[in-house]
């Protein structure tokens, strides 16, 4: 059944990840508590700088963690989800310790949330954060050509979109290259069109142009990532979230993108990303393989 055949109630349930679980707060608290623990550990070892500004606004900040093991000169950037409307970098450093111990830098990004920002503005902010990290690579000790991204849900959309945007429009120095070395996109939204007539769009107010230009699935005929891509989702997710990842995987395979995909058992939309905090999980192993560490 195609999403256009769904009535509003079914469509909203399909695009409400919490419909598959009993209590979303259980998982939000895991984000909070694990991120607090990682931040506390990093502060004790003096391996973090918090609230670095990549823009003028207080929402345009990031936390940067430094390796606690021999540095591999690589940076992993995590972009949070929350339907572009909720969460922040403060709940996004749960995997920092895992990457630090693997010899990597790790950054958790903030961005202005809807309705205070449009999706176009959010995408621009994330690209500015990546640009700032690129320009400050020497200062903080990682290789500017070794910047990898991961994201969950809306963050997966933003991470993947960073591999597709016209970077020469962000900064002329990118006339012949893209600064993203790899992407791990988990339980993402890759076609915005189904959200148009749902409650999710009330703060977003998506335009027709945004649906076309900011949906990776609508760009596949003209733009595909030049970097490796990891796609994943949990087995306990709605059929629409699974379908979007499956369709993207199919199209990228047809276009010879270096891509892997997995449906991870015993995981839902919210706890699957926590596997990045487990060095021996499938997700972490794939990211480390992508980063060549």
Shape descriptor reads globular
pLDDT < 50 runs, ≥5 residues = none
The CATH topology turns out to be Rossmann fold
Cα-atom radius of gyration: 18 Å
Indicate the structural class: alpha/beta
Distance between termini? Answer: 42 Å
Oligomer: single chain
Domain unit count: 1
Can you describe this structure?
The structure is a single chain. The chain is α/β, with parallel strands linked by helices and 293 residues long. The protein has a single domain (3-291), classed as Alpha/Beta hydrolase fold, catalytic domain (Rossmann fold, 3-Layer(aba) Sandwich), CATH 3.40.50.1820. Helix content is 35%, strand content 18%. The chain has helices spanning 8-14, 24-44, 96-101, 119-135, 137-140, 154-162, 167-170, 201-204, 208-213, 239-254, 282-291, and strands at 48-53, 61-65, 75-79, 105-109, 147-152, 180-186, 229-236, 259-268. The chain has an 8-stranded mixed β-sheet with strand order 1-2-4-3-5-6-7-8, with helices on both faces. The mean pLDDT is 96.
What is the strand and helix layout of this fold?
Blueprint lengths: L7 H7 L9 H21 L3 E6 L7 E5 L9 E5 L16 H6 L3 E5 L9 H17 L1 H4 L6 E6 L1 H9 L4 H4 L9 E7 L14 H4 L3 H6 L15 E8 L2 H16 L4 E10 L13 H10 L2
Parallel strand pairs: 3-4, 3-5, 5-6, 6-7, 7-8
Antiparallel strand pairs: 1-2, 2-4
Descriptive keywords:
293 residues; alpha/beta; Rossmann fold; 11 helices; 8 strands; 35% helix
């Amino acid at each position: 059944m195609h999403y256009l055949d769904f009535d509003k109630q079914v469509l909203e349930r399909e695009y409400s990840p919490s419909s598959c679980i009993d209590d979303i707060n259980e998982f939000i608290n895991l984000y909070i508590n694990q991120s607090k623990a990682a931040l506390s550990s990093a502060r004790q070892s003096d391996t973090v700088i918090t609230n670095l500004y990549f823009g003028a606004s207080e929402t345009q900040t990031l936390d940067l963690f430094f390796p606690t093991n021999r540095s591999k000169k690589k940076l992993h950037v995590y972009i949070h989800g929350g339907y572009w409307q909720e969460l922040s970098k403060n709940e996004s450093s749960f995997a920092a310790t895992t990457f630090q111990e693997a010899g990597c830098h790790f950054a958790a990004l903030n961005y202005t949330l809807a309705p205070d920002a449009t999706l176009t503005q959010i995408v621009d902010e994330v690209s500015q954060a990546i640009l700032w990290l690129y320009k400050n690579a020497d200062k903080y000790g990682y290789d500017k050509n070794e910047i990898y991204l991961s994201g969950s849900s809306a963050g997966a959309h933003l991470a993947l979109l960073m591999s597709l945007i016209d970077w020469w429009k962000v900064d002329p120095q990118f006339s012949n290259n893209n600064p993203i070395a790899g992407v791990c996109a988990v339980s993402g939204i890759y076609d915005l069109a189904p959200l148009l007539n749902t409650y999710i769009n009330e703060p977003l107010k998506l335009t027709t142009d945004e649906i076309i230009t900011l949906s990776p699935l609508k760009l596949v005929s003209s733009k595909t990532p030049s970097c490796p891509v990891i796609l994943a989702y949990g087995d306990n997710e709605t059929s629409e979230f699974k379908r979007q990842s499956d369709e993207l995987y199919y199209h990228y395979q047809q276009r010879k993108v270096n891509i892997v995909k997995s449906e991870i058992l015993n995981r839902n939309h919210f706890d699957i990303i926590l596997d990045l905090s487990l060095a021996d999980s499938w997700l972490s192993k794939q990211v480390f393989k992508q980063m060549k560490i």
